[in-house]
């Protein structure tokens, strides 16, 4: 692949973004770095502060044609940088350990590519969304696109995938990444003297029953595909040996490969909580946070990516199984046609969210090349 890009300049951008890592919803500096870079390539328009610190750049063709979006994510994680890097994160306890610095650089690379290959027909939107890790950003960009009256014929996104050879393009029909959400259960009872628990209402039995049943829900219930509940936190009463607890909390991550199974899992969990609360005379509250729908590719989206992969002569591979993690890219399918793929990040690269992870610069061009294939497929330039 010869995209005639200044790779050194792109690597410099990736390192600059890495050094200035910011967590979800604080991506102010990151967005500025992206905007400064994009401006060099004279987009027709740049919108800033879309849905938080989101950035959208438009490159317009002279003739009407397809309107295609490419999406990257701005946020880093609350993980300290523990490896020696010249461009180590300067932000305390914050670093790009999911490779979003690489994702941004690849989408910014489209702008650089367009310098020598301007859009002829149609429009290209480069979308840099905030808050992917918390599952909030994509929904806010959806809203922002509506407000700006921007309609896309297709939106594409990627994630670097550890455990696969560098530069491989990986995708599949149907579910690519799981749906997940955080369930917060609050149980309200009444304290009493520890010597007289019979005068109080303790959530202890309900918590025991809820955490036990949810931990085996994937065995006790029929689901059509992998479905899982992981109890991640639980709290009960105070550290006071004279008091029987009157309040408890449980937090559970619900995960499913299919949105239908997710609904089944939610119904099961809500019924279980209601039943246990009734039995133990507790009041309760249920809320959800970090909601990610599943990331899916329709048959059409898969075929488009396959064709684009061939046009760009990528090492295109169909995955057998979806990934158990979640990606908030799944939100976009609720509003527009979408396609999502992975780029192999190396078999021996540390796992995503591992403190020793660092995005491999030598896969930058593979991602950009696939984007170029998609632009060619839609006859944009
Ligand atoms: Zn991540
Ligand atoms: Zn990520």
TrEMBL record:
Cofactors required: Mn(2+)
Pfam families: Peptidase_M20
GO MF, one example: hydrolase activity
This protein's record includes keyword Phosphoprotein: no
Cofactor descriptive note: The Mn(2+) ion enhances activity.
UniProtKB keywords: Hydrolase, Manganese, Metal-binding
Top-level division of the source organism's lineage: Bacteria
InterPro entries: Amidohydrolase, Bact_exopeptidase_dim_dom, Peptidase_M20
Binding site for Mn(2+): 98, 100, 133, 159, 353
NCBIfam families: amidohydrolases
Protein's recorded name: Amidohydrolase
């Amino acid at each position: 692949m010869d995209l005639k890009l200044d790779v050194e300049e792109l690597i410099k951008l990736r390192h600059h973004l890495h050094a200035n890592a910011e967590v979800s919803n604080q991506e102010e500096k990151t967005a500025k770095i992206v905007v400064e870079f994009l401006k060099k390539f004279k987009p027709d328009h740049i919108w800033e502060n879309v849905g938080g610190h989101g950035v959208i750049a438009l490159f317009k063709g002279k003739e009407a044609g397809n309107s295609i979006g490419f999406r990257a994510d701005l946020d880093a994680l609350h993980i300290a940088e523990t490896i020696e890097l010249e461009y180590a994160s300067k932000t305390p306890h914050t670093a790009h350990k999911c490779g979003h610095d690489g994702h941004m650089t690849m989408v910014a690379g489209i702008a650089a590519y367009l310098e020598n290959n301007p859009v002829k027909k149609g429009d290209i939107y480069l979308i840099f969304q905030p808050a992917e890790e918390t599952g909030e950003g994509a929904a806010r960009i959806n809203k922002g696109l509506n407000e700006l009256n921007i309609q896309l014929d297709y939106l594409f996104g990627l994630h670097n995938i550890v455990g696969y050879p560098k530069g491989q393009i990986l995708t599949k029909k149907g579910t690519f990444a799981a749906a997940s959400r955080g369930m917060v259960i609050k149980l309200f009872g009444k304290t009493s003297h520890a010597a007289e628990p019979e005068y109080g209402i303790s959530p202890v039995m309900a918590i025991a029953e809820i955490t036990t049943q949810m931990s085996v829900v994937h065995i006790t219930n029929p689901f059509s595909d992998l479905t899982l509940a992981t109890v991640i936190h639980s709290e009960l009463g105070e550290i006071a040996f004279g008091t029987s607890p009157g309040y408890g909390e449980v937090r559970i991550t619900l995960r499913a490969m299919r949105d239908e199974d997710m609904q089944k899992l939610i119904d099961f969990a809500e019924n279980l909580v209601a039943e246990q609360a009734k039995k133990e005379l507790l009041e309760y509250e249920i809320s959800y946070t970090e909601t990610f729908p599943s990331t899916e590719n329709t048959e059409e989206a898969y075929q488009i990516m396959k064709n684009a992969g061939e046009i760009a002569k990528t090492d295109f591979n169909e995955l057998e199984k979806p990934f158990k993690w979640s990606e908030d890219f799944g939100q976009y399918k609720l509003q527009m046609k979408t396609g999502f793929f992975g780029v192999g990040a190396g078999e021996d690269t540390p796992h995503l969210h591992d403190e020793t992870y660092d995005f491999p610069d030598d896969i930058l061009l593979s991602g950009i090349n696939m984007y170029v294939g998609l632009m060619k497929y839609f006859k944009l330039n």
